[in-house]
Amino acid sequence: MFSGRGELITKVGTVLSAIMASSCCWLPPLLLLMGVSGAGLTNTLQTYRPVFVVVTFGFLGSAFYLTYRPRRTAGGDEDCCAQPAKGVGRRFNMMTLNKVMLWAVTVMAVVFLFFPQYVGSLFGSSGEVTAEMHHTVINVTGMTCSGCELAVEKAIQTVPGVLAVKADHDAGQAAIGTEPGQHVPTDDILASLESIGYHGEFLEQLHISPPTSNDSR
Predict the structure, then answer these.
(1) Which end of the chain, C or N, has fewer beta carbons within 10 A?
(2) Which class for 130: exposed (0-12), middle (13-18), buried (19 or more C-beta within 10 A)?
(3) How far apart are CA 196 and CA 176, in angstroms?
(4) Are strands 173-178 and 134-141 parallel, antiparallel or unpaired?
(5) Domain boundaries, the chain
(6) Alpha-carbon span 202 to 209, nearest angstrom
């Protein structure tokens, strides 16, 4: 009884901890799509991601041990040496089912653990900034994965006047395309980032004045 309950606990714990390990990338965008602010949530979840990853592998290792460990009878002999008895076939079927469930849980854990790597391609981006647009670059602190890029792009895209956004968590920047000749809504863009827990800073654009003639000859 305790063994079966232990296997169930480790399997459930593996899935839940793997889900929590990837929540820093899927939860903020999900809240954003629901119209709920995720301010500060991303950084908090990202801080605890390594802990959840370790816990996931701990549960998974325990699950493999409990599922594949040698079974012993009341007399101390392993099942492989025991004589067939009533209920052996049922026990064999349950063991097979437990192993199938374990590998299904393993696949689910891997999917969730690597979710931050492909979430961006799964949901798509807000479009490329083309040469016809006014091009602005902003530094964004707090992006750690593709899910963060998606959240940043979706947040900035909601600002009126923004045509396209392309974020890059490796560079820590986001390229923003707006209408040429129109005012760039910098304050609204920064506010949109703050609302989901990120901090932005526009890169200073150099305005080079035309050379003046010097006739002091």
Answers:
(1) C
(2) exposed
(3) 17
(4) antiparallel
(5) 2-113, 119-202
(6) 21
Contact (CB, 8 A) for 23 and 144: no
Report which of 26, 60, 30, 65 is spatially closest to residue 46, judged by C-alpha positions.
Answer: 26
Q: What pTM was estimated for this model as a whole? A: 0.57
Phi and psi torsions of 177, nearest 5°: -110, 125
Residue 151 CA to residue 194 CA, distance in Å, equals: 12
The predicted pLDDT at position 42 comes to: 67
Q: For residue 190, which amino acid is it?
A: L
The residue type of 75 is: G
Determine the topology of domain 119-202 in CATH: Alpha-Beta Plaits (3.30.70)
Cα distances (Å, whole numbers) of residue 2 to 9, 88, 107, 193? 10, 19, 25, 49
Minimum mean pLDDT among 23-37, 71-85, 114-128, 170-184: which range? 71-85
